[in-house]
Amino acid sequence: MHFVKMHGLGNDFVLVNALEEKELGDLPVLARRVCHRRFGIGADGLILVLPSARADLRMRIFNPDGSEPEMCGNGIRCFARYAYEAGLVRGPEIQVETLAGIIKPRLILNGDQVAGVRVDMGEPRLERGQIPMAGEGSPVVNEPVTVAGTTWRGTCVSMGNPHCVFFVEDVAGAPVNTVGPAVENHPLFPQRTNVEFIEVLNRGELKMRVWERGAGETMACGTGACAAAVAGVLTGRSNREVTVHLAAGDLQIEWSRENNHVYMTGPAVEVFRGHFPLHEE
């Protein structure tokens, strides 16, 4: 199997052109093998480039545990850059079919070089049933979530996939690796959830760590940064345009007043290319 390794702010992916690689076998099993950081290539997800009857291309993504999320913000930037540079789309504006609907990345070009990708992520979904989340009442703002005898206040948003956002005083000391998995699997979230821990630096800057559903703590999460920005507005903590600081760099997030869409701008970088055996020896 031919592959390309890419990352968006350290959130790394193995991309496979499934227009050409057609015999990939059991995809959840393949994802677990490929993403393993000791016995595989190592990645936060396996991304497949597929044909679409509704858009230019279709993206499927599988987590390291083999589960399939609806969308991935950093992943779709990598997808868009790969598709453009491989000549699969004419660009610079692309329509990509995902389980979260049609997502529209736009390549930011400096001559013929890709300087970044701006993605129209669509409208945030704030109704409890759309997140999805058990209970009553929408939007879900500062709702108590109790884990291990401690109650946290979560603001919950769907960006095509579920997010529970906690605001903390010091994100560096946040219990991401204990509270994160407990909230991911909390009965409140029937499809599990991503969990963001956010420190507000000022109304235009947020600092974030994230526990991703099916992947654990990752260096960045694009949909999570979007959810954090929306939660910041809903709780009165931040402006509608913010810089979200992550471990390896920044994302620019805007929640537009004009059309209610969230826009995410950030990098996508190719690391290396190679071949991976489809069958274990």
TrEMBL record:
Pathways involved: Amino-acid biosynthesis; L-lysine biosynthesis via DAP pathway; DL-2,6-diaminopimelate from LL-2,6-diaminopimelate: step 1/1
One MF annotation (Gene Ontology) recorded for this entry: diaminopimelate epimerase activity
EC number: 5.1.1.7
Site (Could be important to modulate the pK values of the two catalytic cysteine residues): 163, 212
Leader peptide range in chain numbering: none
Record has Cell wall biogenesis/degradation as a keyword: no
Residues binding substrate: 11, 63, 73-74, 161, 194, 212-213, 222-223
Main location: cytoplasm
Active-site residue numbers: 72, 221
Gene Ontology terms: biological process: lysine biosynthetic process via diaminopimelate
SUPFAM superfamilies: Diaminopimelate epimerase-like (SSF54506)
Catalytic reaction annotation: (2S,6S)-2,6-diaminopimelate = meso-2,6-diaminopimelate
Family: Belongs to the diaminopimelate epimerase family.
Protein's recorded name: Diaminopimelate epimerase
